[in-house]
Amino acid sequence: MTQAALEIPAHVPPGLVVRFDFRRDPRMRTDPWGLIRELTDKPDIFYTPELGGYWVVTRNALVAETFRRHDLFSNQYVTIPKIPDAPPLIPNNIDPPDHAKYRKFLAQKMFSPRALASLESDARKLMRDWADKTVPTGACDFVPSFAQPMPVDLFLRMMDLPPDRREMFMPWVRGVFRPETPEEGTAAFRDLAAYLYGWLDERIANPTEAGGHMLPAMLAAEVDGRKLNRDEMVSIWMMLFLGGLDTVTAQMTHVMRFLAENPRHRQQLLDDPALIKPAIEELLRRFGIANIARVVRDDCDYHGVAMKAGDMVLCSTPIAGLDPTAFANPEIVDFGRVEADSHWAFGAGIHICPGAYLARLELRIMVEELLPRLPEVHVPVGGLIEASSGGTLSLTTLPLAWKAD
Ligand code: HEM
Predict the structure, then answer these.
(1) What is the pTM assigned to this prediction?
(2) How far is C-alpha 369 from the geometric centre of its chain's CA atoms?
(3) Is residue 4 part of a domain?
(4) For FRET with 192, which of 156, 163, 174, 293 sits at 20 to 30 Å CA-CA?
(5) pLDDT tens for residues 262-283?
């Protein structure tokens, strides 16, 4: 990202300026949680001139409110800096009233627990196969070995895309989320869209071959009494690709790192697997990964802060989850924490993540399947852990070792 830092705009009071570059600050690579924790002592809403300038809300409750206030904030741009020529992704870049038309079939027909019922056994099988292959080796870099390919493999199954295309999809995932250069990002977007148009055309021409429930649900969907057109379908497919892959990868890396570094918590889950569900909620709270933005619609006063039309506002779930006014000792992971469910890891309001059920399922099965198979899993002494921050905050390397069978 090459966007230069801006001057402070006239409507921003100097007392509300804090320098914070959530993408490029070197500490986001080495100590992201330490840096984020420091922000939670800053004003409830502050402004940073980095990346073209943006507001940051630091309180858990304000992050939820900002997610919800589509009367004040638009989803036209959800990345900082804005990418003005990016095609709108359905449904995330769509504001009311049109948003609801798309959202309805997505949530009800494509992502309901019922629609995803068969996925649990698929996920379990994929993870068991990984364990059979990897456990005897005694060590791996968890990110390229598991956290990156696993959500892609599941996604390909769920979307009825050919499983042997994983090698083609992986560079696109990396190119879209963590491009080395802006050109790489644009090329990954373009190539993914071109592939999806071709694949969709082939499927539409041969509807009887369509498997799974996702594509049939989309082909049957109606908006304003008409079927979706080809551009809308590719846009939704792209959205699912972007919403559903790097997010799950990122969350898996933080969950696994925490468990590898905390034998007492690990033992709690091994002793009482019923704790895994609440543990996942607490880890979603403690290690939020989503940096989503909103655009101010019209000049407004938001909790005493004057915002101008077009200003960007960062809703960061990593920051929200560490808010000490919402969570006592927020850095401590406590599987019995009573307020653990008050996190907004999946957003809030009309855009709340429709993939949350699926994401929780993947995380839960990962813990259920891997913990018993990786005895004494730990980060080896001197093992380098690195993070990367953008739309998601993810680890990019996580060396693990365990006692091999
Ligand atoms: C741990 C994993 C995940 C996290 C933390 C996450 C987080 C989020 C958040 C915070 C939003 C709200 C965006 C906004 O308010 O603008 C969102 C929306 C969305 N997510 Fe997820 N997500 C995850 C997994 C998934 C999965 C697995 C899928 C599907 C395959 C998915 C699909 C979507 C879609 C389509 C939207 C847009 C919904 C709308 O605008 O109405 N997500 N996600």
Answers:
(1) 0.95
(2) 22
(3) no
(4) 293
(5) 999 999 999 999 999 999 999 9
